[in-house]
């Protein structure tokens, strides 16, 4: 007769829930350099009111004659050795030291009349040279009328169109692509 073997379950405690890795990476503690003022034979200590201490320590070495503070490397930083004036570079921009004189009302009226009578001949640049003023001042004081401005813009656009007609196929294509890209922005 065959004996039936009874298999007993083994009761063992499983430690599957135990962590098998470090919870954090090991880190070195921060370096602690010794305080250079503590136990320094050259330092002087003075007690101040309110639990404060004033510590004065002289520099570790005396300055040498060739140090950068007493003997700068650049000749521009050295003090003048003789009574001769310094050779400095010229001033690049002195600013508006001389203020232009204000234009009289008569000159402004004359400028407006010239601009209004013949805007093709009396341009902004020509008027500014004639009256010795800035082009911005001419634009402000003697602007074109809206109809004259439209006429000038139309002439400029026609001139630009004439130039564009001379462009090749590739340049025209690139310009059209760029214009389309701007529209889609």
Gyration radius (Cα, Å) is 44 Å
The side-by-side strand order for the widest beta sheet comes to 1-2
Helix content: 25-40%
The helix-and-strand class reads mainly alpha
Topology, number of strands: 2
Distance between the termini: 94 Å
Share in β-strands: 5-15%
The ordered string of helix (H) and strand (E) elements is EEHHHHH
Mean pLDDT: 80
DSSP summary: helix tally: 5
Report on the biggest sheet: 2 strands, antiparallel
Low-confidence segments, given as residue ranges, are: none
Principal-axes geometry comes out as flat
Keywords:
ribonucleoprotein; about 180 residues; about 5% strand; ribosomal protein; Mitochondrial ribosomal protein subunit L20-domain-containing protein; mainly alpha; 2 strands
Concise overview:
It is built from five helices and two strands. The protein is mostly helical. Among the domains are: 40 residues; 42 residues, no CATH class.
Summarize the structure in words.
Keywords: Ribonucleoprotein, Ribosomal protein. This is Mitochondrial ribosomal protein subunit L20-domain-containing protein. It comes from Irpex rosettiformis. By secondary structure, the protein is mainly α. The chain is 34% helix and 5% strand.
Q: Topology of this protein?
A:
Blueprint: E1 44-48, E2 52-56, H1 105-117, H2 124-131, H3 135-141, H4 146-165, H5 169-183
Antiparallel strand pairs: 1-2
Helix pairs in contact: 2-3
Protein name: Mitochondrial ribosomal protein subunit L20-domain-containing protein
Keywords: Ribonucleoprotein, Ribosomal protein
């Amino acid at each position: 007769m065959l004996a039936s073997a009874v298999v007993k379950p083994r009761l063992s405690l499983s430690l599957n829930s135990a962590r098998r890795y470090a919870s954090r990476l090991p880190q070195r503690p921060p370096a602690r350099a010794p305080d250079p003022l503590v136990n320094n034979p050259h330092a002087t200590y003075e007690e101040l009111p309110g639990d404060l201490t004033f510590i004065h320590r002289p520099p570790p070495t005396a300055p040498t004659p060739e140090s950068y503070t007493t003997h700068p490397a650049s000749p521009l930083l050295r003090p003048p050795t003789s009574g001769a004036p310094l050779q400095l570079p010229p001033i690049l921009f002195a600013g508006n030291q001389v203020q232009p004189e204000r234009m009289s009302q008569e000159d402004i009226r004359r400028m407006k009349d010239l601009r209004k009578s013949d805007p093709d001949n009396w341009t902004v640049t020509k008027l500014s040279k004639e009256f010795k003023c800035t082009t911005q001042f001419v634009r402000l004081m003697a602007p074109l009328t809206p109809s004259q401005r439209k006429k000038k813009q139309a002439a400029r656009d026609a001139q630009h169109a004439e130039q564009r007609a001379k462009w090749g196929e590739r340049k025209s294509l690139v310009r059209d692509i760029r214009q389309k890209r701007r529209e889609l922005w």
